Amino acid sequence: MAHFNLTGRSSFPAELVDSIIDHNHSDPATLMICSLVSRQWIASSRYHLFSTVAISHDNAREFVQLLSSPLCTVSTAIQGMDVHFVPGSQRWFGEFARRLILLNNVTIVSLGISGSGNTVIREEVQIALPTLSVRTKVLNVGPGVVFGTFSEFARLLCTFHALQSLSCSCTFQIKDRAQGVHFNSPLSQVYLVTPAIKLVSELLLSQGVLPTIASLSMSHLVQDDYPTLSTFLATPNENLHSLAIRMDSSFSGTTLDSFTEDVKLTQLKVLLKLSIETDPKLSPEQAFRLLARITSSSLKTVEITVALEQGAARVDMLLSGDQFPSLKELKILGSSWADARQFLPRCNANNILKEY
């Protein structure tokens, strides 16, 4: 209940204020209005408005000057930083990082690195980035970013000792092997996109990290990516809860039959969520072969692209049967809701078939 004092001002329960502001977390215009309602609303509004900031050579100096001002009141809200580089000089970042770490009121826990076109990350940036890695838990190295060698990237990655989540879709001019590196971060989530899949997954597998993660996503796999994935899946695993794979047969250079043969899910003992998205769609026989090898009795969610045609009844019987006692949600990607209900009547009757 709101409390009204003698001055005519009102104070709402903090839970109500947070709920209102959280509901508008992705609407900057509304958040700016909320921050003007009262002092009570400012902190929560700024948490969303300034939680992640975008930095480039155009605004880096002004940003540091803002944070250095004794009148600055947004520094404690900043949790993440997306740094954008362009081809050419990147010396500005070294000075920016040096000045940023001198400020005790800023803690970066999420760091994004992006580039325009094919931007090579220069040595001065590679030297400066580790200064921001001490408390970074989330690292996203996006497309458009290029490292001269993979070993450069591997050495940089090993400086993030608190890292819990890694997303990587960058490229490497020289695909060498990283020697003498040691990765000891508490990594639990990995999201990889070709061309980064092969080298990064090999590194994490050789360091004993890949078998310990809880969530793995791989997109746009190509033929060279499958040996490491097959090796990973062949090892008994009691840690992986979520697996997402996205492949395009024409892009990957491998057939759907080869894909379903390489992706064997027998050893994933505690898998809770599986997402398989392919182009073209898996045939009912291919989908059945893939799903029938699952041994996790804890599987709760399945998202899969499968052609709803003759033979889909086997998939329907499998997913609605005793092999998956915990299954609560089945989504057929790329198919209409009407077709899904028609071809998977048992799953629909069991109320596990959900509209995509």
Q: How many domain units? A: 3
Query: Architecture of the largest domain, according to CATH?
Result: Alpha-Beta Horseshoe
Tally of DSSP helical segments: 15
Specify the overall morphology.
globular
SSE order and pairing:
Elements: E1 3-4, E2 10-11, H1 14-23, H2 28-34, H3 39-49, E3 52-55, H4 60-68, E4 80-85, H5 91-101, E5 110-115, E6 119-120, H6 123-128, E7 138-141, E8 145-149, H7 150-157, E9 165-168, E10 171-174, E11 189-193, H8 197-206, E12 215-219, H9 226-233, E13 242-248, H10 249-252, H11 256-262, E14 273-279, H12 284-292, E15 301-304, H13 312-319, E16 329-332, H14 337-343, H15 345-349
Parallel strand pairs: 3-4, 4-5, 5-7, 6-8, 7-9, 8-10, 9-11, 11-12, 12-13, 13-14, 14-15, 15-16
Antiparallel strand pairs: 1-2
Helix pairs in contact: 1-3, 2-3, 4-5, 8-9, 11-12, 12-13
Written overview of the protein:
The chain is of the alpha/beta class and 356 residues long. The chain has three domains: 18-50, no CATH class; 56-209, Leucine-rich repeat, LRR (right-handed beta-alpha superhelix) (Alpha-Beta Horseshoe); 214-355, Alpha-Beta Horseshoe (Leucine-rich repeat, LRR (right-handed beta-alpha superhelix)). The chain has helices spanning 14-23, 28-34, 39-49, 60-68, 91-101, 123-128, 150-157, 197-206, 226-233, 249-252, 256-262, 284-292, 312-319, 337-343, 345-349; strands spanning 3-4, 10-11, 52-55, 80-85, 110-115, 119-120, 138-141, 145-149, 165-168, 171-174, 189-193, 215-219, 242-248, 273-279, 301-304, 329-332. An eleven-stranded parallel β-sheet has the order 3-4-5-7-9-11-12-13-14-15-16. The longest helix is centred in the first third of the chain and has 11 residues, at 39-49. The radius of gyration is 24 Å and the shape is globular. It comes from Psilocybe cyanescens. This is F-box domain-containing protein.
